[in-house]
Write a structure and sequence with these properties.
Blueprint lengths: L1 H23 L16 H8 L5 E5 L7 H20 L3 E5 L6 H6 L5 E7 L2 E7 L2 E6 L2 E6 L9 H10 L1 H13 L5 E6 L10 H7 L4 E6 L7 H8 L4 E5 L7 H12 L3 E5 L3 E2 L2 H7 L1 E6 L5 H7 L1 E10 L2 E11 L2 E17 L12 E2 L4 E5 L5 E7 L4 E4 L3 E4 L18 E8 L24 E6 L9 E2 L2 E2 L14 H13 L19 H6 L1 H31 L1
Parallel strand pairs: 1-2, 7-8, 7-9, 9-10, 10-22
Antiparallel strand pairs: 1-5, 3-4, 5-6, 11-12, 12-20, 13-17, 13-19, 14-15, 15-16, 15-18, 18-21, 21-22, 23-24
Length: 546
């Protein structure tokens, strides 16, 4: 009796010790090959800085396609990792069936999916969204972003790969107290506000925007430099008027003092609106007086007009159908549709970007890191300028032999220490704080000013990522937003976009064809083996003990 009591007491003490040890020294192990459940240091820092409860509502609950159950499971497991890092995080999965209208009003649009089950195709509607609440702030997160994926399986894989970046970006946005400042330059014929509305309104959710004119550089350039230095980034969106030497030196010294810059430059005077009005136009060089400035930073924007067989469509009136005008869309090779660099966080997994009357970029041999972001296809053609562009040529069959110029660089990221454009040159004004070389800096140069220009529909700005005529989707907005995030990112958050998760997908057609075999293999065969074993064992017992 005493021996049994001692054993029971020993077991109880052991269980108490194990419980205390496991509670004190809790840890989690990620045994996946791609470390999909291991949080980055950036995410850990963001999560650990939460001082109060962060509530997350995920609208991935209910009856939806089996493959998208995977997105639900992966989202739940990722949120469990966040919760394990900080108990202030609470999440729940909600069935959106009864609150669909409310979700749509809040901008959370459903996704329509094509589902294949038992060899048959059907449609399904899901709400792949999450909503974060922190204090009085709220923000939505898309769990199924638009990507250049060729199939639903690839789109699902991209969505799971993007989970950490999507939630980390939302947590940073909802918890930040001080916003970085962006100057949108004006005064040199840049795009009007209504033409940049789609891009800037989305940008304004994360950064503080301010309009900045360089006009004061003529009278008080030193003060203009100091004012511009208050901004972390400058956006130069399709200037059409010549920059003075004073304005150029202001921009140069802004960059030398660490200011980031996004250049959207049209070196040609060519516009789709002019083409629509007259049917033809003369594309000729636009003198912006920026060549020497950009040359000193390591690039040259040329004046050769790029045409590409991979192009977006232009919609034209082709006659009348009764009292209604009839429209048709044609491939317009002056509007290249280009893919981004698949290995860079700015352009990874974004939809193709539409450019309009773009030229090409040459990079120079300078001690600057140059990363191509947007490149035309190999089936491109270069035309010298000035040249006449005629709308009537849109229906002509192209000759592939003419489109053999190869890939052309259209947008590039520059990183490093930039040399001043006014080194060993006469300066337009004396600057006592003149700097000859910058600290580590970065800029993006795009050889198309229309990349950020949204269309107008009934007097209102249209979404930059969608064509109002064809409803075709483009990656322009995502590209520009990612570019700004990369230029202003000090924490490494944007690098999470490069995270890749490899999912093992089931071949549905093969599974459907071979389902009888696998049903037999998984159900009938085990039962048959068990039956044979039971009969054999029973026979053996009878023979042995009879």
């Amino acid at each position: 009796m005493n021996k049994n009591l001692k054993t029971i007491l020993f077991v109880l003490v052991g269980l108490i010790f194990l419980n205390f040890f496991s509670a004190t020294f809790f840890t989690r192990f990620d045994l996946t090959k791609d470390k999909r459940y291991t949080l980055s240091e950036v995410s850990k820092q963001l999560v650990n800085n939460l001082e109060s409860s962060l509530i997350i509502n995920v609208y991935l609950e209910g009856d939806f396609p089996s493959e998208f159950k995977r997105l639900q499971i992966e989202t739940r497991q990722f949120l469990e990792e966040l919760q394990a890092e900080n108990s202030n995080i609470r999440f729940r999965f909600i069935n959106p069936e009864d609150i669909r209208e409310e979700l749509v009003k809040n901008g959370m649009m459903p996704s329509q999916l094509t589902v294949e089950e038992d060899g048959k195709l059907s449609e399904a509607l899901i709400f792949p969204w999450a909503e974060l609440f922190y204090g009085k702030k709220a923000i939505t997160v898309s769990l199924l972003p638009n990507t250049m994926a060729k199939s639903q399986e690839a789109q699902l894989e991209n969505a799971i790969s993007s989970l950490e970046h999507s939630f980390a970006n939302a947590i940073q946005l909802i918890t930040q107290n001080k916003r970085k400042k962006i100057a949108v330059l004006s005064g040199n014929g840049e795009l009007e506000d209504i033409r940049l509305f789609s891009f800037l309104s989305e940008l304004g959710k994360k950064y503080s925007l301010g309009k900045f004119t360089l006009d004061s550089a003529a009278k008080n350039p030193i003060k203009t430099i100091e004012q511009l230095k208050q901004y972390d980034l400058s956006i130069i969106a399709k200037p059409t008027e010549t920059f003075t030497n004073e304005e150029k030196l202001v921009l140069d010294q802004y960059i030398m003092n660490g200011g980031k810059s996004l250049w959207m430059i049209d070196n040609l005077n060519a516009d789709t609106d002019s083409l629509y009005n007259a049917g033809k136009m003369l594309a000729y060089n636009r003198e912006l007086n920026l060549t020497d400035l950009l040359f000193s930073y390591g690039v040259r924007i040329n004046n050769n007009l790029v045409q590409d067989l991979y192009a977006s469509k232009l919609t034209l009136a082709s006659g009348n159908l009764g009292n209604q005008a009839r429209f048709e869309s044609y491939d317009w090779f002056y509007h290249p549709l280009v893919n981004g660099n698949p290995n860079h966080p700015i352009t990874k997994n974004i939809l193709p970007v539409r450019l309009r009357f773009t030229t090409q970029i040459d990079t120079l041999k300078k001690d600057i890191k140059k990363t191509p972001l947007l490149v035309s296809s190999v089936l491109s053609k270069l035309s010298g300028t000035p040249t006449i562009v005629e709308l009537e040529n849109i229906a002509k069959e192209p000759s592939q032999e003419e489109y053999s110029a190869g890939s052309q660089l259209l947008a590039v990221l520059l990183e490093g220490k930039f040399n001043s454009a006014y080194e060993n040159r006469t300066k337009p004004f004396e600057n006592p704080n003149y700097q000859n070389i910058s600290s580590e800096n970065k800029m993006v140069i795009i050889a198309d000013g229309d990349i950020g220009k949204n269309q107008i529909l009934k007097g209102k700005p249209y979404d930059l990522g969608i064509d109002k005529w064809t409803q075709q989707r483009f990656g322009n907005k995502d590209f520009l937003l990612n570019t700004v995030d990369y230029l202003l990112d000090d924490s490494g958050l944007i690098s999470l976009r490069n995270k890749t998760v490899q999912l093992n997908s089931l071949d549905k057609q093969k599974a459907f064809k071979e389902r009888s075999f696998w049903q037999f293999f998984n159900i009938v065969l085990p039962l048959a083996i068990l039956l044979v074993f039971g009969l054999g064992f029973n026979y053996w017992r009878k023979k042995k003990y009879s």
